[in-house]
């Protein structure tokens, strides 16, 4: 083999990895960039707290409805092309929501949600296909990159808004320019991903979809995993939407609130580096998953009682939600005995879990609107943390679901 061919063979996996990481960086950041400037958007468009909460809810509904359909898309046009479609949807969605009107804001956010749903489902399948021996390591890295991308998006939202003010542009609002500023990230990802379009491969057998395993929907063990993931996302997306507003009302500046919101995103990624190696050693994960609920309770309680130490509470809360998400995904594998059953459970958990999560920002906004304070909404989150810790005592059991929907211990 010539040196030129050797270089090409070695360089290609590196290019795929870079592409994967760039795609991952766009799978949360378009949503998290909304939080720090949500008040500006609400005031400019005259949105109520409930309507503002719905901005974060819209992509969650897209996750719920489009995640199970993503594998069908990949089977028709190929895994690589589907991921490019995801990036295109995210780019178009960012452009649409930056036009400055209420209708375009919600429409663009919906399109972004569809793109993220496709990427969320298909990216793990790509990892398993191309790097089967490095799945754990690369998963940890790409979850970390998701957190870094989200952190950057949150942190630059307010500075970009003020930069827009200095430009004195009147065609669109300053907040729209801030939202548009992150469009460069999916564009870069598309350019790097272009060489992969010459391939046309199907998703792996365990890619999430709702298939003929109807007994899964009758299995209590499957619902335990679904509720665990749903409650985790319920409180996580509340804080993605509302944390900056809570912090500003607690005395922090808009810049500080934006940076702390970015810290939340980064802290959700850290558990990937800690938990993924640890989980392989623990067959019974009840203590670990219950600990995430407790840690989340302490973080929210601390923010409610001692907001002056917000950085500490935000790191604790972010770690717990990131850790809970990783554990919830691992439960899908633990509870199932083959790839097709895993796909069925994953499709169910994503569909119903995100539908539950979609109610979070709206309920939080409604309570705030009704009471004029953040106290009762935060207490609601504390109650959810207790329920989350409680369900983890069941979801964390090493049970495998049989084809009749009954659960059996994976080991004795």
Automatic annotation (TrEMBL):
InterPro entries tied to this protein: MFS, MFS_Cyanate_Porter, MFS_trans_sf
Keyword Cytoplasm among UniProt keywords: no
Keyword Transmembrane tagged: yes
Recorded GO MF terms: transmembrane transporter activity
Keyword terms: Membrane, Transmembrane, Transmembrane helix
Transmembrane feature ranges: 12-31, 51-69, 81-99, 105-127, 139-163, 175-194, 221-243, 263-280, 287-306, 312-332, 353-370, 376-397
Pfam families recorded: MFS_1
PANTHER family named among the record's database cross-references: 2-NITROIMIDAZOLE TRANSPORTER, PTHR23523
UniProt name for this protein: Cyanate transporter
Organism name: Aliivibrio sifiae
């Amino acid at each position: 083999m010539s040196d030129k061919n050797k270089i090409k063979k070695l360089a290609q996996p590196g290019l795929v990895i870079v592409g994967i990481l760039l795609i991952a960086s766009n799978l949360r950041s378009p949503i998290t960039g909304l939080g720090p400037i949500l008040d500006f958007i609400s005031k400019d468009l005259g949105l109520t707290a409930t309507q503002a909460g719905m901005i974060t809810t819209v992509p969650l509904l897209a996750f719920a409805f489009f995640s199970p359909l993503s594998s069908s898309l990949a089977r028709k046009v190929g895994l690589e092309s589907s991921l490019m479609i995801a990036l295109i949807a995210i780019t178009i969605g960012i452009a649409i929501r930056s036009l400055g009107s209420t209708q375009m804001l919600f429409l663009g956010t919906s399109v972004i949600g569809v793109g993220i749903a496709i990427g969320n489902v298909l990216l793990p399948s790509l990892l398993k296909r191309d790097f089967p021996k490095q799945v754990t390591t690369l998963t940890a890295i790409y979850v970390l990159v998701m957190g870094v991308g989200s952190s950057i998006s949150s942190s630059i939202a307010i500075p970009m808004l003020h930069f827009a003010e200095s430009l004195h542009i009147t065609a669109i609002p300053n907040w729209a320019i801030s939202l548009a500023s992150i469009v460069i990230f999916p564009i870069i990802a598309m350019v790097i991903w272009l060489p992969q379009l010459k391939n046309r491969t199907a998703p792996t057998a365990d890619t999430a979809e709702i298939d003929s395993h109807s007994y899964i929907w009758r299995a209590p063990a499957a619902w335990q995993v679904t509720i665990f993931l749903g409650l985790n996302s319920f409180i996580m997306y509340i804080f993605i939407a509302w944390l900056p507003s809570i912090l500003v009302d607690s005395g922090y500046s808009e810049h500080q609130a934006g940076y702390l919101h970015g810290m939340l995103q980064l802290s959700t990624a850290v558990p990937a580096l800690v938990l993924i190696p640890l989980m392989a050693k623990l067959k019974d994960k009840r203590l670990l998953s219950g600990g995430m609920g407790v840690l989340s309770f302490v973080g929210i309680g601390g923010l409610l009682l001692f907001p002056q130490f917000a950085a500490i509470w935000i790191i604790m809360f972010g770690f717990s939600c990131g850790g809970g998400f990783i554990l919830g995904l691992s439960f899908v594998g633990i509870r199932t005995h083959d790839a097709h059953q895993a796909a069925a459970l994953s499709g169910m958990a994503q569909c119903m879990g995100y539908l539950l999560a979609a109610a979070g920002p709206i309920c939080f906004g409604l309570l705030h609107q009704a009471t004029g304070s953040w106290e009762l909404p935060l207490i609601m989150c504390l109650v959810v943390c207790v329920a989350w810790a409680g369900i983890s005592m069941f979801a964390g059991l090493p049970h495998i679901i049989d084809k009749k929907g009954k659960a059996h211990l994976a080991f004795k």
